[in-house]
């Protein structure tokens, strides 16, 4: 299992569409994916779970991955978040 | 039941379809039904879990349907909604609430979504608060879809359905499951649901304010649509006397039907009464009442239920059912979508009645248009001489010409494929827009027949929305302004030697029908239930008397005066 702290960079936060992108990506990996924030722990493969974290720009999330492809999953997720979900400032 | 003299509670409304019945009440309150934390028995767990899966499948299909007609930005939002609906976590939680806690499906959905909604509310972020509405909408739609199916399972025979409003398709479904009467909070006398109720020959009250609220705890009711009231939980004595009255009325109707009078005026001039229908289920009554074919076949039902383009074979099967279910001509109106008819995928419009509907939409949606024409023209080849094509919502001459060209092209293609056609298939138009009536002499050279739709013609002439109950009183279809437009259309048809018929409410109306015959319209089409009544009236007078009545009507100044003229006709 690996854990990592990441920061949300895009201005609209983990809104509907960014959440959908994150969940879609996580779904491609076998590893379990959980997000911790303000004491909540949600399933990172559930869009409702992710969305209802209401993570705004600057929010810090502890992500937790556990499974055979956890390293690749972490890398992909970090890239997506760093790229602001590919939908910044449209 | 208490036996004191307290009068039973009543709900008042407008009669949308006549009749009198006693039956158990089936009250459906879209808002009420959400929040009851009802427990279910262990044997019902599987069924309730399946209800959620079915509701989810239906909802995803609805969203897919929306997607086919959206721009990219909006599509992404719908895609996100689909993700939410299909969320695995949600399914696990709902199944747990049903399986472990034994809550009913609607409460499980409601409670599960509320958990997420609460969290968003607590977050204090304005940006995310907007999402709350989205989640609430998804929650309510899922609850509604899962409940619909539940309720569909539990219709008592002969039930009186009490709803806020209802779609035509749902009404037909409920009718097939045993519903025999309808009471609606909303809607006017000419709302689509009321038209269907008349066709199905079930009593119906519309604009019955707060009916759902008042009837919520009642078990049985007497629906007297002739008087315009629903009596809640009547005493046993009242029920007994009403049942007697119903029996007597049935006998009277049967004997009336037996006297199969010929359709001609007192002095022997023939006329034809045909049926307006939308579903094959209505043919029985049309035949019983002596309808000479179908004067208006509405085809929009093929579009309901979310399928934007029904497959050709489904359309073929529908038409075959109609053609084999009744003798005589069948006038098929092309898809007339828009306005009060359930929109399938029309975008929001400020003024749908003046918007993209009828032929305007069909000429833009070529695939839908050509697939319908193809199905109709194939059928016409199989039943030569029986089918007529009717074009709705025509306002410009160019539209008719374009339709004729399309018909020719499709027929050419069918011939190339070796499929038989009816080369003489008549193409006609609805006269329902004032411009069409005013230019009737020009239109008459381009089409094979006119069919006057008096409902829309009335609302466009008097600028009154017929679905708006607040201004129902302005919607007067006896208004002389409408009669003048009808006269212009009829005169143009007779002069150019094309057929003319009337398929609106006026044709099935005791005051309207004799006046139409007096103007020279010998072909009237109406709800199947109206045929015996109209026949009885029209056979009572010589044609000259009706001609005079029509001339007097044209000289009147208000709808009220026309009613007085009718009293003179029927009294003297």
Describe the 3D structure.
The complex is a heterodimer of chains A (90) and B (572). In chain A, strand 2 and strand 3 (40-43) form a beta hairpin. A four-stranded antiparallel β-sheet of chain A has the order 1-4-2-3. In chain A, 32% of the residues lie in helices and 26% in strands. Chain A has helices spanning 16-26, 47-51, 70-82, and strands at 2-7, 32-37, 40-43, 60-66. Chain A has a single domain (2-84), classed as Histidine-containing Protein, Chain: A (2-Layer Sandwich). Chain A is globular and about 35 Å long. Chain B has 572 residues and is α/β, with parallel strands linked by helices. Chain B has three domains: 10-29 and 164-250, Glucose Oxidase, domain 1; 33-153, PtsI, HPr-binding domain (Enzyme I, Chain A, domain 2), CATH 1.10.274.10; 260-571, Phosphoenolpyruvate-binding domains (TIM Barrel). Chain B is globular and about 75 Å long. Residues 1-5 and 339-345 of chain B have low confidence and may be disordered. The chains are: A alpha+beta (90), B alpha/beta (572). Chain A binds chain B through residues 12-13, 15-17, 19-20, 23-24, 40, 43, 45-49, 51-54, 56, and chain B through 76-77, 79-81, 83-84, 87-90, 116, 119-120, 123, 125, 127-128, 131, 134-135.
Number of domains of chain B: 3
Q: What name goes with the CATH superfamily of chain A?
A: HPr-like
Helix/strand class of chain B: alpha/beta
**What is the CATH C level class of chain A, in words?**
Alpha Beta
* Topology, number of strands of chain A: 4
Rough outline of chain B: globular
Average pLDDT reading of chain A: 87
Structural class of chain A: alpha+beta
Gyration radius over CA of chain A: 12 Å
End-to-end gap of chain A: 36 Å
Radius of gyration of chain B: 26 Å
CATH class of the largest domain in chain B, named: Alpha Beta
Strand/helix succession of chain A? EHEEHEH
CATH superfamily assignment of the largest domain in chain B? Answer: Phosphoenolpyruvate-binding domains
The low-confidence runs of chain B, each spanning 5 or more residues with pLDDT under 50, are 1-5, 339-345
Low-pLDDT residue intervals, each spanning 5 or more residues of chain A: none
**Largest protein interface, residues of each chain:** A-B, 21 and 21 residues
Strand content of chain B: 5-15%
Q: What count of domains describes the coordinates of chain A?
A: 1
Query: Main sheet of chain A?
Result: 4 strands, antiparallel
Helical content of chain A (DSSP H or I, runs of 4+): 25-40%
